[in-house]
Amino acid sequence: MNVAPNSYSRSRKRLLTAVASLALVGAIGAGALTTGTSPVLADAVRVEAPQMPSFADVVEHVSPAVVSVKVKAKIEPTADDGSDPFQGPDGFNNLPNNPQLRRFFKEFRGFGGQDQDGNRRFGRRDHNNDQPRPVAQGSGFFISEDGYLVTNNHVVSEGSSFTVVTNDGKELDAKLVGTDPRTDLAVLKVDGGKFTYVDFADDSKVRVGDWVVAVGNPFGLGGTVTAGIVSARGRDIGAGPYDDFLQIDASVNRGNSGGPTFNLNGQVVGINTAIFSPSGGSVGIAFDIPASTAKEVVNDLMKNGAVQRGWLGVEIQPVTADIAESLGLKSDKGALVSSAQEDGPGKKAGIVAGDVITQVDGKDVGSPKELARVIGAYSPGKSVDVTVWRDGKSQSVKVDLGKLPASDKQASNDDGKQAAPDKPDTLADLGLTVTKSDKGKGLVVTDVDPDSQAADRGIQPGDVITSVNSAEVSTPDDVTKAMSDAVKAGRKAVLMQITRDDSNRFVALPVGKG
């Protein structure tokens, strides 16, 4: 069979092309499977991205200054008469006649009862009842090379002996130098040796959003580091008159109390003292005593073993917008004096209920808490100029501060309960029914309209109205006149002084139908 030359050439080219293709595929396949002695793999994933700051350098430098604080106290025996609680008519002999139950209590008595000397046992034989037992465990940190360290008052308050455990595991005996329950701070001292210590930061420069690192002893685990940010400043959590906490979201738990919170320069910005937690564990809300407060208190404790604070001797409350309006103040700043305590420095100097304290020595006072901090920063005996708003104008009163008494010795009024005569009168515009006090001064509230402004502001039956707009009242006509005078002065509210349970407060009520 003859093949045309052109047809033959085309067939030959197709054959050569197919052979070349197969050779190429084979070469590629062979190269993928065996290129030398090892397979070819793709590169590992690597992302080039901005890196978060590391806290390792800060932690490395500050950790030796942070310690665990172990507290022991003498525990009294459960049975003061030395009797065995598992014996007698109400004890072991009175158990049901159940062999298994009786065997269990026999074993339990041998473990946690008393030994032959009458001493309580807690898992082992203690022949000396005077030995202190662990009652608390917290954290602390050195603030001086010679062994002064800071912790919380609530960590050490029930202790009779104290042990400090350093970062490297050494246990050192410590003695209590002083405590300040009002700020929940305490100072301990360890003798012998030189210690790594840290310093307090200028917390006025701390901003919400700044990184912080908390170091402490949560749950007794030893040196633990957590990190977060400053969540808020100036928190008032109702812990005391000097509340001004930093809020942080670094994880803080039981055992962190008294431990430091550091900025990225290794300075203490706050001291862990409380957490907000429905569960008892960290939920990301913790509160620190600010460094500025701690520094002042700690210095006093190191020098004197206690804090000496100035005392004004007045009970105060916030100035609301309604109260400011009723008094003719331009803003709701200051601290309203609800009462001046008998024999207190304020009353002796002429401060009276109804005054609004706006400045101390020229420093503005924005709130009752701020007034407490300002006065507390002065030493007893210090003479200060107190600016008050009274009768529509500012006045200056010079006060020689006293010494703040212990909390259980604060002065209180003892006027007894107010009793009401029979005939009530109605102050319809205020939603109140009142009657004259049997003591001649003031009006006893006998009924409050539940839909009135008075009810909304917390006035209750039994309250005693003692003054309206700083004018004493003893009849309903006195109240009506004070309201009329307020309207003529262009004010929209009147300020009532209310006495309840031997304490005073002020309530602003709008003028007109309640």
Distance between the termini: 124 Å
Mean pLDDT: 79
Question: Mind telling me which CATH architecture of the largest domain this is?
Answer: Beta Barrel
The structural class is: alpha+beta
What's the level 1 CATH class of the largest domain?
A: Mainly Beta
Radius of gyration: 37 Å
Number of domains: 4
The counted number of beta strands is 27
> What percent strand?
25-35%
Give the topology, please.
Layout: H1 5-33, H2 56-62, E1 66-73, H3 99-112, E2 133-142, E3 148-151, H4 153-156, E4 161-165, E5 171-180, E6 185-189, E7 211-216, E8 224-235, E9 245-248, E10 260-262, E11 268-275, E12 286-290, H5 291-304, E13 310-311, E14 314-318, H6 321-327, E15 335-340, H7 345-349, E16 356-360, E17 363-364, H8 368-376, E18 383-390, E19 393-400, E20 402-403, E21 425-427, E22 432-436, E23 443-448, H9 453-456, E24 464-468, E25 471-472, H10 476-488, E26 493-500, E27 503-510
Antiparallel strand pairs: 1-2, 1-4, 2-3, 3-6, 4-5, 5-6, 7-8, 7-10, 8-9, 9-12, 10-11, 11-12, 13-20, 14-15, 15-16, 16-17, 16-18, 18-19, 21-22, 22-23, 23-24, 24-25, 24-26, 26-27
Describe the structure.
The protein is α+β, with helices and mostly antiparallel strands and 514 residues long. It has four domains: 54-74 and 132-307, Beta Barrel (Thrombin, subunit H), CATH 2.40.10; 80-130, no CATH class; 310-409, PDZ domain (Pdz3 Domain), CATH 2.30.42.10; 425-510, Pdz3 Domain. The chain contains ten helices and 27 strands. Strands 21, 22, 23, 24, 25, 26 and 27 form a seven-stranded antiparallel beta sheet that branches. The longest helix is centred in the N-terminal third of the chain and has 29 residues, at 5-33. 35% of the residues are buried. Mean pLDDT is 79; it is low at 19-34, 78-92, 107-127 and 408-422.
